[in-house]
Design goal:
The complex is a heterodimer of chains A (113) and B (114). Helix content of chain A is 0%, strand content 54%. In chain A, strands 2, 4, 5, 9, 10 and 11 form a six-stranded mixed sheet that branches. A five-stranded antiparallel sheet of chain A has the order 1-3-8-7-6, with no helix packed on it. In chain A, strand 4 and strand 5 form a beta hairpin. Chain A is globular, with a radius of gyration of 14 Å. Chain A starts with a strand and ends with a strand. The relative contact order of chain A is 0.34. Chain B is built from no helices and eleven strands. In chain B, the strands form two sheets. In chain B, strands 2, 4, 5, 6, 9, 10 and 11 form a seven-stranded mixed sheet that branches. A four-stranded antiparallel sheet of chain B has the order 1-3-8-7, with no helix packed on it. Classes of the chains: A mainly beta (113), B mainly beta (114). At the A-B interface, strand 4 and strand 5 of A face strand 5 and strand 10 of B.
């Protein structure tokens, strides 16, 4: 099955700095890579996703890059704000079967005002 | 309507109790999921229903019993739970379990077993 590694487990930045979270996956057939943000006590919510036919996707301050050859993808948040503080989970799905995302272990992002 | 609604939000139950968690979505999604999430950990998949049929059971103990009465509803029946089953139980749905599309999560039921 798919194995997703996520780093770092904790990331502390100052407001206005950039934050980068990295994930690697094991199944080269995976073709969909969503990122979820989970605030304390709340549900995971999709913030951005990327499919294997695209190398980069951007949505305002958030961007995701995918390197299929190296089997890694990254989340980039620019101009961080205190409300970006949350746990971020990357996920990868095995193609050809059910959409069952395998989650990374999560990154706790803390943005200091 | 892009909501997945879970009830109750909080549940405290004894080890001999029987209770049920409920999940509802009206997005026309044909895949629904139960996840268990411990503090500071990622969601762990428990069950997947695809077109109202159980398609995946991730070796979950029989004290957890899922049920899908129709395409909009998903239940999780609980019986004889252990304190270590205390966790946040998340329901999710997606358009189709065979397609790679976004999963929408409910707010979760925070379960405490005493």
């Amino acid at each position: 099955g798919e194995n997703v590694e996520q780093h770092p487990s904790t990331l502390s930045v100052q407001e206005g700095d950039s934050a980068v979270i990295k994930c690697t996956y094991s199944d080269s057939a995976s073709n969909y890579f969503p990122w979820y943000k989970q605030e304390l006590g709340k549900r995971p919510q999709l913030i951005i996703d990327i499919r294997s036919n695209v190398g980069e996707k951007k949505d305002q301050r958030i961007a995701v890059t995918l390197n299929k050859t190296a089997k890694h993808f990254s989340l980039h948040i620019t101009e961080t704000q205190p409300e970006d503080s949350a746990v971020y989970f990357c996920a990868a799905t095995e193609a050809g079967g059910s959409y069952i995302p395998t989650f990374g272990r999560g990154t706790s992002l803390i943005v200091h005002p | 309507d892009t909501e997945v609604t879970q009830t109750p939000k909080h549940l405290v139950m004894g080890m001999t109790n029987k209770k049920s968690l409920k999940c509802e979505q009206h997005m026309g999604h044909r895949a629904m999921y139960w996840y268990k999430q411990k503090a500071k950990k990622p969601p762990e998949l428990m069950f997947v229903y695809s077109y109202e049929k159980l398609s995946i059971n991730e070796s979950v103990p029989s004290r957890f019993s899922p049920e899908c009465p129709n395409s909009s509803l998903l239940n999780l029946h609980l019986h004889a739970l252990q304190p270590e089953d205390s966790a946040l139980y998340l329901c999710a749905s997606s358009q189709d379990a065979g397609m790679n599309t976004e999963a929408f999560f409910g707010q979760g039921t925070r379960l405490t077993v005493v």
